[in-house]
Protein 1
Amino acid sequence: MTKNQTVLNWVNEMAALTQPDKILWIDGSREQEKMLQDEATATGEMIPLNPEKLPGCYLHRSAINDVARVEARTFICSREKRNAGPTNNWWDPKEAYAKLTELYRGSMKGRTMYVIPYCMGQVGSPFAKVGYEITDSIYVVLSMLIMTRVGPEVEDMLGDSTDFVRGLHAKAELSEENRYICHFPEDNTIWSINSGYGGNVLLGKKCFALRIASYQGWKEGWMAEHMLILGVEYPDGQIKYVSAAFPSACGKTNLAMLVPPEIYREKGYKVWTVGDDIAWLRQGPDGRLWAVNPENGFFGVAPGTNAKSNPNALASTSRNTIFTNVVQNLDDNTVWWEGMTKTPPTNAKNWKGEPWDCTDGSKGAHPNSRFTAPAKNCPCISSEFENPAGVPISAIVFGGRRAKTAPLVYQSKNWANGVFVGSVMASETTAAATGAVGVVRRDPMAMLPFIGYHVGDYFQHWLDMGEKLGDKAPKIFNVNWFRTDDEGHFIWPGFGDNLRVLLWILARCEGKVDARETAIGYVPYAKDIDLDGIDVDEETLEGLLNVDRDLWKTEAEGIEEFYAKVGDPLPKVLRAQLDSLKAALA
Ligand code: OXD
Ligand code: MN
């Protein structure tokens, strides 16, 4: 237990409010983890899986009304309403604290309060930040032990500093009407109640590492982004790093763990994973932009993950993993989800724990079912994953799920234009958040649900970072793996073949390949994307690279509407970018 008086006072205050029967300080030891696993097994909260086939793995089922992030119930409680901006729900912090205080009061009676000291980033790294999460959920504790770095070294790193994020989570009754995920950026505080879903309750992840950290980054001159980080290794052993932002459930984990096509593997190309969801980026001593993954595990979407689409993710889940809301195969006590294999188990329970007959057409796993797996399990984890200095970023890639408008890949004209490209990203919605699926919405930098302050100030911060980085700034690109033909089939094969696009991107960064200038930016010449070994001909590729003026004119109207919503804080530079786009399309 820490000697930090600020931490102790805060824990005492939260305990007086929530009134747990006892308090347990989490120490990161294997013994304590085992004790909690046994307790959760005894209560049925966690189901141990086949120890031979899935050693150290557990299945957890959430409440059926609690399976995704709840954006409508997520609040930024900045003192001034203006500072939450038009993309966040704002709640006056005084009112939010008052309302939630009443909900928390006595909510841990008869339960244990767990206090988790954790570090986002490698302990001791210049990027690293400490958080404490108080929770009454063993599932949260066991998941945080996978997703973050927990233990006495974290408390040593904090010392007697008051600079830590205070996270309070209580399951309460898991009632939907009283479910709130509140962020108080000016107080370094997160209050989450009435949910048990990872994205709402593993407070180190979306709540801290994105919403609070984006605010901290703005104040302190760095960036917290919804980005994967990967390294492409060339046959000569050189490795170049790329960070890429995609909305939730658009294939970030697959891209982060990409397996090169066979002909590339034979030549000696490799891809290394540094992170699959979140990047913290700062200017390094050499002036370049450096990135770390602040997490220690993967909280990935299970459906669709299989030995072909993502063998590395599958291998990551082979031990010490928590599966949430997937199918339980009763024959051998393993797990299954749609898209894992072609043949569903016949003796099984669905994600709700009901006997499941796959022939009745119902889904066995929830579409947003998840695995929580240690990063070190990943066969392609980068040797730099734990490097406290991070990795230098050559290219930043934005991408969305667009059936038509966006070409397979294009490069922005410069940093400011790249910020424009990121700011107007749009994508079709997925099951990672509650609400309709498949609707196109603007999702700037894939951060729409995660920017902890005013989106206009966030854009300005991006522009300022570019000023600081000058000619050492990474180049900015946009990709779209999801273009479809008239029958709705994806045209680009995606997955491992996305390496072909990454190689074009990296060649551009080094000035090794020409490109065609269009109204939206630089588009590849079809001959410069290697099609050897895939079933895509040059004509199809031309189609994928096509920039359709009419579609883009409609797009510009959509951007205009979005920018109007951003209002006055929209940087003038971005308004000018939109005007130039319109002029170029005219
Ligand atoms: C996630 C998300 O869980 O973006 O990564 O929802
Ligand atoms: Mn995410």
Protein 2
Amino acid sequence: MGEMDGLTVTECTKCPDLVACRSQIVNGVGPADADILFVGEGPGAQEDEQGEPFVGRSGTVLSDTLRDVGLEREIVRITNCVRCRPPDNRNPRKEELANCREYLEKEIDRVDPELIVTLGKVPSEHLLGRSVAVTSEAGSLVDKAIAGKPRRILISVHPAATLYDRSQTDTFVETLTKAAEFTTDTGGQKRLGDF
Ligand code: URA
């Protein structure tokens, strides 16, 4: 295992099935001090090829929606529950999620975000530690301790859900609007404190 700076994993062979299929480890992107951390499930084919989370079709939906709600992709941090592509785009297995958990927790610690947005069922359940009905719970803010520190989590549908079911688009936009408002509020408080 090679891990530097709390953010970047340079080598890891904990998950044999993933190691056999991956092109590379896909680390998170975005500022190390971002206010918002988006957490997806795991890299897909495009992400595995380019070495960056959310650069395929889901990534286009995410970037476009971020822009629409006034949050540029460049100012948020984006990562995944697992950093290596599961073969055939299957969901990451329990043990794979567990193997990668320490990297995610270190990233959360290092970034220390005001808000974590979980994109879809897998990251929502992984971080909340319970089953989550994302479609009905999307937009909910939940406080949860992660690695011993209280964190605020906003549950979201996965951006890919909007591609299969157009009715999910409104839910996704509303949730990201809430994320944008949340940080605007925080920024307002910070500015007041500056005076
Ligand atoms: N879906 C995810 O959950 N993560 C990615 O990085 C890309 C697609």
